[in-house]
Amino acid sequence: MSLDVIDGILHHLKIFLFHKQHDKMMRKRVYSLSVECLDNILKHSDISEEKHELLINYPPRFIVEKIAEDFLIHTGNVILNKNRDKIIPRLDKLNALTIEEINELYKKSLANAEISAKGGAGLGLIVMAKTTKQKIRYDFEKINDKFSYFAMQLNLKK
């Protein structure tokens, strides 16, 4: 996944949403979440080599699916097992919060945000939970002793 690939995906998504989605707020939510998801895949995939052998069976995944009036966004990427152990508690904590608590956490995190070595401020998952107003569905498939495949599904209801 490169910035050029992401730019192309977002360009096509923007055109699709403009022509197929009449609800402007839903268009903005889908696009915003897509940017966040693709940014996470780019920044947080723990395999940087384009031709790494694991990518043959576990490529980065980004799918936007429209079902009736709702959208599902599916993502997936390879991460280190040690990072999986950091992500699970964060996701579980977010999924346990109410919308009001997520909004408060967002404000607090925004005020205290520091840019990490990977270029993020730790807000990605919070933004996803805030935007979807739904629980974040996720799964980890252990690939080997070092890596897992992190799959996530975001549900945007009208």
Summarize the structure in short.
The chain has 158 residues and is of the alpha+beta class. 52% of the residues lie in helices and 22% in strands. The chain is globular and about 45 Å long.
Report what the structure shows:
There is one protein chain. With 158 residues, this protein is an alpha+beta fold. The chain has a single domain (3-156), classed as Heat Shock Protein 90 (2-Layer Sandwich). The chain contains six helices and four strands. The protein has helices spanning 3-20, 24-44, 54-57, 81-96, 99-112, 124-132; strands spanning 61-67, 70-80, 137-142, 147-156. A four-stranded antiparallel sheet has the order 1-2-4-3. The model has no long low-confidence stretch (mean pLDDT 87).
List keywords for this structure.
single chain; 158 residues; alpha+beta; Heat Shock Protein 90; 4-stranded antiparallel sheet; 6 helices; 52% helix; 22% strand
Which CATH-level-2 architecture? 2-Layer Sandwich
List low-confidence stretches: none
Radius of gyration from the CA trace? Answer: 16 Å
- Strand order in space, largest sheet: 1-2-4-3
The CATH class is Alpha Beta
Termini separation? 30 Å
Average pLDDT score: 87
Question: What is the N-to-C order of secondary-structure elements (H for helix, E for strand)?
Answer: HHHEEHHHEE
Q: Shape from CA axes?
A: globular
List the helices and strands and how they pair.
Layout: H1 3-20, H2 24-44, H3 54-57, E1 61-67, E2 70-80, H4 81-96, H5 99-112, H6 124-132, E3 137-142, E4 147-156
Antiparallel strand pairs: 1-2, 2-4, 3-4
Helix pairs in contact: 1-2, 2-6, 5-6
